[in-house]
Amino acid sequence: MTDTAHSPSHPSPQAHRANVVLLLFALLAGPTGWIGQIWLGYGLSSHACFPRDAAGRVSPPPGWAFEKPLLLAINGGCLALILVGFAVGLGSWRRTRSEKHGGPERVLEVGEGRSRFLAQCAMLTTAGFMIATLFDTIFLLFTPTCWSFQ
């Protein structure tokens, strides 16, 4: 019985170079970081600004001076998770390079195989979620915590 995953005729001859668990982590890091940032940030902000039925009109609310630094820390942690996911996807993408397209030194090339495709998807999605999280962080820096149109 021959090992078809490592043979040159296999559609993904470099598939053995990618770790499936790391690829799944890279694919899920972007959405997980963004959802965590939205979920934790929204929950914290909504409780601070709407502790009861009526909205609070003071920014920051009494006793909630730690809210903005905590929200920035949450955003920073989520951004770090997304960046790690991007780095893992990039590493997997580089490891699954095909030797017949110019060797390991060539970075921009058309890849083949499932592992390389998943690594490219991971890099694309983490980049998108990184941009979304950065926009949320910038918004947090320039607006009061309990802002309203008055």
Strand elements, count: 0
Rg computed from alpha carbons, rounded to a whole number of angstroms? 22 Å
Q: What percentage of residues falls in helices of 4 or more residues?
A: 55-70%
State which percent range the strand residues make up. Answer: under 5%
Tally of alpha and pi helices: 3
Mean pLDDT: 78
Largest sheet: none
Shape annotation: elongated
C-alpha termini separation = 75 Å
Q: What pattern of helices and strands is seen along the backbone?
A: HHH
Low-confidence parts = 106-110
The chain-level structural class is: mainly alpha
Total number of domains: 1
Describe it.
- It is a single chain.
- This protein is an all-alpha fold and 150 residues long.
- The protein has one domain.
- Helix content is 59%, strand content 0%.
- The protein is built from three helices and no strands.
- The longest helix is centred in the N-terminal third of the chain and has 30 residues, at 20-49.
- It is elongated.
- The model is unreliable at 106-110 (pLDDT under 50).
